[in-house]
Amino acid sequence: MLGLPFVVAAISSFVSLPNVEGLKLPNGAAKLPAMGYNTWNYYQCNINETLVLTTAQQMKSLGLQDAGYKYVNLDDCYSQRDRNSAGDIVEDPVKFKSGMKNLTDQIHAMGFKAGIYSDSGTNTCAGYPGSYGNEQRDADLFFGKWGFDYLKYDNCFVPSDTVTRTGIIGRYTRMRDAIISATSKFNKDIVFSLCKWGNNQVWLWGADIGHSWRTTGDIESHWWSVTDILNRNSFITQATNHYGHNDPDMLQVGNGDLTYDENKSHFTAWALLKAPLLIGTDLYKIKPEVVSILSNKELIAINQDDVVGTSIAPFKWGYNPDWTFDKDHPAQYWSGPTKDGVVFMLLNVRDTPDNLSFTLTDSPWIKNGRKYSVRDLWTHTDNGTVSGTFTAKNVPRHGVVALLLKEVGDA
Ligand code: GLA
């Protein structure tokens, strides 16, 4: 009989297996999905140091830091249009007049970590300098001189050259290597977030290069965008584990025309997909109900599960036949393991309230003939035990139910 190692080696020799646990930088950064704030979804290019620092202060005052959000990240548009004569990126002297080191010092003093943004092409998407050909120089600036801890790395203005052509991933590899070197040079944890929009099947190789990778295009603050992204991500949930996460893009919770129920559904899905949770709304005008959605401790605990790193996955589509690709009606019945039981997400993708019903053992994580206790992760109540089938009654339009089931004995 052939041993398992032989079989695995034989398979690996002709199939490229994704790295199961993702990139481990020398000091083990980013085992869990990053949680924090990013300026893009709400402010786009209208950023400056006062906004960033007062937003960080709001994260504290609103209890979001205590809820686990620890990164304060800049996105595009923080720099001057051109590098200086020495070849370095220079911060915009009006928007960031006290300088980036001062900014990261203050962010750190508030107990946060700080994130910066660049691009694997010659320019960022808004036309500022990208890091192409300057990877180590920029990594040294960002993580050394400026003191950042996190890099979002975008995909605009990509030159047509041999680096790009011979390895689609070449541009990202160069920055990964620059980050690995900066990690030891500056002795700090650095998170590397690839913004590759799902191109080139990034979920197959992202874990070898970074800690998260955008699986899809830019999210917008409308329900149709949430369902579109969720639908696409429903087919690649296997790519996520500790140290390497699918990134369905930053949260729009609190933005645009998303209703209370749509915000809850969006947050639930992102948390249970083990996505990075980056808030992107105005923290001055934020409604208390939105703060409470973003602070759902029980969902965050699953997002940050340090024992089980995998995502929920659909086990039944519901509205559509299983495995249907439908941007407006993604799968409705999802489940996955956690260190504390089996988690379920039931999504009402219809435009009217509905009962959502399923046979427990249709989830691959539920054992036949056993009984489970039911914890509701939105009402925060224990709702007795269940075996056989489960029905969530009258789930609102575009609403969600999140449950944690624990095995308690025979049915
Ligand atoms: C791209 C990214 C966005 C944002 C903008 C900034 O569109 O996908 O998340 O970073 O660039 O210009």
Question: What is the fold's blueprint, element by element?
Answer:
Elements: H1 4-14, E1 35-38, H2 40-43, H3 49-61, E2 71-73, H4 100-109, E3 113-119, H5 135-145, E4 150-154, H6 162-166, H7 170-185, E5 191-194, H8 206-209, E6 212-214, H9 223-233, E7 245-247, H10 260-272, E8 277-279, H11 288-294, H12 297-303, E9 313-316, E10 333-338, E11 341-347, E12 354-359, E13 370-376, E14 381-386, E15 389-395, E16 400-410
Parallel strand pairs: 1-2, 1-8, 2-3, 3-4, 4-5, 5-6, 6-7
Antiparallel strand pairs: 9-10, 10-11, 11-16, 12-15, 13-14, 13-16
Helix pairs in contact: 5-7, 10-11, 10-12
Alpha-D-galactopyranose is lined by residues 40, 75-76, 124-126, 154, 195, 218.
Radius of gyration: 22 Å
Write down the overall mean pLDDT. 93
Q: What level of helicity do the residues show? A: 25-40%
Helix/strand order: HEHHEHEHEHHEHEHEHEHHEEEEEEEE
- What is the makeup of the main sheet? 8 strands, parallel
What fraction of residues sit in β-strands? 15-25%
End-to-end separation in angstroms reads: 40 Å
Describe the 3D structure.
This protein is an alpha/beta fold and 411 residues long. 27% of the residues lie in helices and 21% in strands. The chain is built from twelve helices and 16 strands. It has an eight-stranded parallel sheet with strand order 7-6-5-4-3-2-1-8. α8 links the parallel β5 and β6. α10 runs parallel beside α11 and α10 runs parallel beside α12 (297-303). The longest helix is centred in the middle third of the chain and has 16 residues, at 170-185. The two termini are 40 Å apart. The structure holds alpha-D-galactopyranose (GLA). The site of alpha-D-galactopyranose has 9 residues, from loops.
